[in-house]
């Protein structure tokens, strides 16, 4: 199965935010040794989830995991992201589009917080 990963961010008009997601995406791509790792944005960017899913499929992906780069399951996650994934699965029936767990309450995040406040 040809896999792809999409890292989905809320999106921002700020250039540093876009650069940050692009940097994270490249690091994940290198660590996984996987060519098909893409950044996508919920809003404020031409690299929308819908566009990036379409591009991944055009590049041969038959399974796409969408990792929401959202800390908690707020309104955007529960309403917008889940609905977009549902619609994309209807649109691309031959492709498995899977929404992974968001970041959430994770011990690794606790370590990062403690490191930042030291």
CATH class: Alpha Beta
Computed Rg: 15 Å
General form: globular
Helix content: 40-55%
Describe what this molecule looks like in 3D.
The protein has 118 residues and is of the alpha/beta class. The protein is built from 4 helices and 4 strands, in the order βαβαβαβα. Strands 2-1-3-4 form a 4-stranded parallel β-sheet, with helices on both faces. The radius of gyration is 15 Å and the shape is globular. The protein starts with a strand and ends with a helix.
Short description:
The protein is an alpha/beta fold and 118 residues long. The chain is 47% helix and 19% strand. A four-stranded parallel beta sheet has the order 2-1-3-4, sandwiched between helices.
Entry keywords:
Rossmann fold; 47% helix; single chain; 4-stranded parallel beta sheet; 4 helices; alpha/beta; 118 residues
């Amino acid at each position: 199965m040809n896999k792809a990963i999409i890292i989905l961010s809320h999106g921002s008009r700020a250039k540093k935010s876009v650069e940050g997601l692009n940097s994270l995406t490249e690091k994940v791509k290198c660590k996984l040794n996987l060519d098909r790792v893409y950044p996508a944005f919920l809003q404020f960017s031409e690299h929308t989830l819908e566009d990036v899913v379409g591009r991944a499929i055009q590049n041969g992906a038959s399974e796409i995991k969408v990792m929401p780069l959202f800390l908690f399951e707020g309104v955007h996650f529960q309403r917008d992201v889940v609905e977009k994934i549902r619609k994309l699965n209807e649109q691309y029936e031959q492709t498995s589009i899977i929404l992974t767990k968001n970041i959430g309450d994770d011990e690794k995040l606790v370590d990062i917080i403690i490191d930042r406040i030291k």
